[in-house]
Amino acid sequence: MTNAPPPPSSAAQSARTILTRLHEVMASRANAQGKLNQVVGIIGECLDSEVCSIYLLRDGALELYATRGLKQEAVHVTRLGLGEGLVGMIADQIETLNLDEAAAHPDFSYRPETGEELFHSFAGVPIIRRERAVGVLCVQHADPRRYADIEIETLQTVAMVLSELITNADLVDTAARTDAAAADQSAQRLNGQKLVDGMGAGVAVFHQPRITIEHTVAEDTEAERHRVYAAFDKMREQIDRMASQADFGVGGEHDEVIQTYKMFAYDEGWSRRINEAIDSGLTAEAAIERVQQRTRMRMRQIDDALLRDRMHDLEDLSNRLIRIVSGQMGTAAQMGLRQDSILIARNLGPAELLEYDRRRLKGVVLEEGSLTAHVIIVARAMGVPVIGRVSDVRASIREGDLLLLDAAAGALHVRPTQAVQDAFDAKLVISQKRRANLASLRDLPAITKDGVPIELMINAGLREDVAALDLTGACGIGLFRTEFQFLVSATLPSRDRQQRLYRDVLDAAGDRPVIFRTVDIGGDKALPYMNVEGSALEENPAMGWRALRLALEREGLLKVQARALMEAAAGRTLNVMFPMVSEPWEYEAARNLFVGQRAWLAQHNKKLPVAIRYGAMLEVPGLLETLDLMLPHLDFLSVGTNDLTQFLFAADRAHPRLAERYDWLSPIVMRYLARVVRTVVGSKVALGVCGEMGGRPLEAMALLGVGIERLSITPAGVGPVKAMIRSLDLAALRADMPKILAQPSSNPRGQYQAWAEAHRVDLGD
């Protein structure tokens, strides 16, 4: 943070004017109701808004406490439940609304006693106390218009001051919604999303209670500014120290995660926004919280999961900065874990997780979290199981409660009964025995009972994933997702950085093959540092400007990657695969680009691969219709079952209501794959499947049945799938497959399960 404060912005000056007047109101001898009446008048006047209203949480509902512009007889009469109407939605979701036509919103709820039918535009912000909405501040105007960002920011600043005023006046029931839950001593099961697999047991430890900001209005802005300067310096020292101490053994992509985290810590734009909030008249703590609230609002508006995860990193740093500036640094990590513990947090940044003793940390439960978050990459490297998207954890769990975490099932057992503990322990023992049995298969070949060898490979995307080759006994990497390096990086990875990664992977793999998929970005894997024109407007990003389509347009991106791959594979065989090929010409264009880069390197006397094998991914269903034209130019073909399935069913695989609706074992999928096999048979092209489908024993069995003999799957699936392969009479299955495909059951999964049971196939159940 620079030591020269920027000149106050117009937004800061406007907010300071309002805060100065509010400070006078708060210091006056008027009663609480009188102060609120003055507040709505000041805000309405300063923002030139015809209506300003304050709703406060009382007896479980939002009650209109003060208004300028609505009918006064509605005060203390109009009440809205949490989630009811626009005001209820703001409080329930802790979200800001800015509408030019309020009545057009689906959650609009008209209350005739207020007289609000005269007004069209509406903006509202939550009044927050201890991470919960205790009220709503809103403004309305007769003319349809959206309020300017400056006005919304001013409302958010005022809402922070109101939080202090109404809490000191004891106007809201801040604890009403938590007391009943806190008194609950019964066993519970909370459900979430598996982020890192595993099981763990320990006592509940809350990562860090949010700092409650008691004073929001600054007496001396320069003194507050210097407090923030000092806090920034201390925070950056902590981040630098943690980055230097982070130890995962051999390097990995988590190193780049930490570097990205450091980038946020040194971001001048962030510190400038905090300075502007101080200029508006807020204390250091309130200024940081003010900027953090703005960040949270932006997070809710961002559709891109990766960018949301970047914002989580910034929120992590905001929490750290508030703790430093307030002198309340007692995190659970710094106090030390005294026994086996399950960590509870709304969200975590990667640096915060690194502070914990890995010997005591048995699991992490997040209220938010996602598979692409930086902290998940670090947790996976640490071997700590994690589940996310667990709601109401603070209302359901108390510090010290016994917790049992089963990430595979997405389950958290709170204060479990003895029967649940016994079942958990039994599952853990079985899981450990099963892992031990599967580990014993590591050095045994993946050969069916009737002697058919199956190529069993792994999918990877991080440097440390290559270690799974030795751990699982897989025969190679059938899919190395090169985009992971792009996703965890703060900037576009240079050719040298890409080359180092690819060379490290090849060195670690030794004589085992590695198939590198060229960068697959766009769609749900957008890069915040790479602007793709029109990408934000795509209604169907999975079918939009992504993968090979994007790479062929951004030739420079693909050329750099081509050179990096070829130089990394110098003296070896390079296997390169292009994603989401829709038509033969796209594959030819990408292949020709690589051929051109090989010629360029040769002209410059660079050492080259001894051979380059080219492949394509079959993910777009229509490609099958011209696959015969491509086969003479292909060395191998991999079916990407994840995207292929969603395209076959026109069903977004990430949609929560559709995720489990369509089965991989549906005759639609299986008949399609059988057609692919028939088309490829007789050519020189090696055919395989990469994707989650091949990593499940039952689905893998079905794939072998239609003629697939190469699977590239998640490392965790190698053992169970190998056990299935070694117990399978493949000839018997292939003899029965025509009938299964011709006469599918209404329950196709049950049909395959019945066949496996009848033929004693090991599915690991």
UniProtKB/TrEMBL annotation:
One Gene Ontology term, aspect cellular component: cytoplasm
Keyword terms of this UniProt record: Cytoplasm, Kinase, Magnesium, Metal-binding, Phosphotransferase system, Pyruvate, Sugar transport, Transferase, Transport
Cofactor: Mg(2+)
MF-aspect GO terms: kinase activity; metal ion binding; phosphoenolpyruvate-protein phosphotransferase activity
Enzyme class, first EC level, given as a word: transferase
A Pfam family the protein falls into: PEP-utilizers
Entries under PROSITE patterns matching the protein: PEP_ENZYMES_2 (PS00742)
GO biological process, one term: phosphoenolpyruvate-dependent sugar phosphotransferase system
Domain GAF: 31-176
Main subcellular location of this protein, as a coarse class: cytoplasm
Residues forming coiled coils: none
EC number: 2.7.3.9
Catalytic activity: L-histidyl-[protein] + phosphoenolpyruvate = N(pros)-phospho-L-histidyl-[protein] + pyruvate
Record's subcellular location: Cytoplasm
Family from the record: Belongs to the PEP-utilizing enzyme family.
Protein name: phosphoenolpyruvate--protein phosphotransferase
Gene name of this polypeptide: ptsP
